[in-house]
Amino acid sequence: xxxxxxxxxxxxxxxxxxxxxxxxxxxxxxxxxxxxxxxxxxxxxxxxxxxxxxxxxxxxxxxxxxxxxxxxxxxxxxxxxxxxxxxxxxxxxxxxxxxxxxxxxxxxxxxxxxxxxxxxxxxxxxxxxxxxxxx
Length: 135
Description:
three-stranded antiparallel β-sheet, two-stranded antiparallel sheet
């Protein structure tokens, strides 16, 4: 005597295939988001470095507040992708502040803008940086 219905033989392989397809789609989606974050951050550090180089050329006493104000203006104008902390300071898409180092040179300021990248730690292989030469 049979107590219930039997599942068709094709259902388990179809269910497995559907689960694998769902996993592949989700993994692909995560990869695309990760790639997109990296590309947007690469663009941001390049634009920020150029902006700060120009600002430091105009004002050799450029300070941290002015730098943050410039980055904030770029983000608010949708020129770069960035987020903000509770105090309104600009952050990269990984939630960390951009590091800006600039030095005056005879031919103009040299600027390096760095994002700590996905691991959130500066000085590691996944950092995203762009440097300008003076002038």
